[in-house]
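Sample intake — RNA-binding protein KhpB
Collected from: Planococcus salinus
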Amino acid sequence: MKQITQTGTTVENAISAALEKLQVTREEVSITVLQQEKKGFLGFGAKQAEVEVTLNTPEPAPVEEQQLETTTTGSAEAETAVVQEQEKVEEAEEIPVVSNDRAIEETIKYIQMIAEGMKIEDLRITHEQKGKQVNFYLESEKVAMLIGKRGQTLNSLQQLAQLVANKYSNQFMMVQLDAENYRERRQETLEQLADRMADKAIRTGSRVQFEPMPSYERKVIHQALSRRLDIDTHSEGKDPNRYLVIEPHR
């Protein structure tokens, strides 16, 4: 009895993949759904569908027919060839198609799936690619939900989107998500905050530290203060709790 277990994004996708591997039609098999697909939320808790596909066993031929078949010229060779071809199909593994275009397409699908889980139905996504850097721009009436407090939701979604992009790309890609020009506004806020904190360090004569930030936000502050000779900056801690420190120059 020929039987395989197959997973897929949906039950139908899993069944189609199993039929292709077995090289049979739906009428020739029995199908048992082991698990329905589950989308999950924010990319977590998602589960693929899983099915068990069993090849229906044909009725055994009468002894006379079996004997006749075994004596037919070339029948053994034909049967061997069929078995070998079937083994090749079973051993063949799916090789995912990778390209930058595919990576961008899959990343957009992933972001839209997350937005649907957040009940955001009007999300519009455009993108711009500059070498290995790909910027995705998000627009929605509920854009504040995508940004979150101090950009935390947007930053988390950006990290997940980069993982998806690099799963399908043929070269390393840097992904940045922006929503309603939040990144530019955030950079201006960070630069102003950097000057205030540097002035505080000089005024008090002691070190001051920022709250934990992602690496590119710490980089903004480092660059904003690089022109000042009266203070030093460095980062401490480990991600995701790594933070930046300003100290008066000794």
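Post-analysis note: DSSP finds eight helices and nine strands in the chain.
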